[in-house]
Amino acid sequence: MIGNATFRHRNTALLSVIGVQAPRIISSTEFDHRLASTLRRLKFPPKLLERVAGVTHRRWWAPGTSFDDAAIEAGAKALADSGIEASEVGLLINTSVTRRNLEPSVAVKIHHGLALPSSAMNFDLANACLGFVNGMTLAANMIDSGQIKYAVIVNGEDAQATQEATLARLQRPETTREDFNREFATLTLGSGAAAAVLGPADEHPGAHRILGGVMRAGTEHHELCVGGIDGMDTDTKGLLDGGLQLVVDAWHEAQPEWDWGSMDRYVTHQVSTAYTQAIVDAIDLDPEKVPITFPHWGNVGPASLPMTLAAEAQTLGSGDRVLCMGVGSGLNTAMVEIVW
């Protein structure tokens, strides 16, 4: 294939990856109670979120904690874990979907909160749930080129306001089954934060080498999931079908160059039971090697994959091969191999 969709990194390693869980646990049973009259009127079965999506809980931040505060916390922990000083960082990329305003960037508050130097570039990179993986790839390219030495990739998501607005709409007496189905995916979201520090592999021989991977676009599906501050309109089946086909195509197109059939771990974007099972079945993955976090965290957007990777880190040994498999509405997908 002509172009730059399949890529390799020459000298970049993952020095640390951190996940931060929001403290307030919000059960799907609580959502069921709030929507009880609507669910009865529309004749939906009980425990719909658990039965259809597999989400039993999601998390919200404590009052007074903002998503960018959480991203700063994650970034500080990732820097401490990596042993890299803030003064050494040349790049900060914020990949959060959540934002309060159109400008300035979310990155500027995080840059300030981490006390990064004036010489450190900082900006937002937005690509739905794929943003964090894209951020890692962009940073790795800049490290490979010698433009920077160390990069921090951060993400913070806050689902509460969006879910509160969606719950209020779905409680209206005029809500139809079509309305409910269109907004169902919003109820599966969760809050959380993540951060990673990347640097030159040749100066950190014990770190986790980022080898490269593949990216593919399926932008004919750009209208299947459209989100805003107040909620998301999602064609759930169309998104599953289109996303699955895109991932399968990317997987097979990558195989002449990448042998991913026997990885030690497959870290996927965390969406739902149906999505995960469809991926496992379609490309014949060992389900024991596919960690699952969405039942208790929900879909934490771009933070889902790095939070899951951080949770798996303690079970990975030197030399283990990890494939990060990201997908974002739009649709876009990326798969990146990391050797632990």
Structure description:
α4 packs across α5. It is globular and about 60 Å long. β13 and β14 form a beta hairpin. The chain has 340 residues and is α+β, with helices and mostly antiparallel strands. The protein has 12 helices and 14 strands. The strands form 3 sheets. Strands 1, 2, 5, 6, 7, 8, 9, 12, 13 and 14 form a 10-stranded mixed β-sheet that branches. A two-stranded antiparallel ribbon has the order 3-4. It starts with 5 loop residues before the first strand and ends with a strand.
Pattern of helices and strands: EEEHHHEHEHEHEHHEEEEHEHHHEE
Kindly report the average pLDDT value.
96
Cα gyration radius (Å):
20 Å
Helix percentage range: 25-40%
Which sheet architecture does the biggest sheet show?
A: 10 strands, mixed
Number of helices: 12
Key features?
ten-stranded mixed sheet; 340 residues; alpha+beta; two-stranded antiparallel ribbon; 12 helices
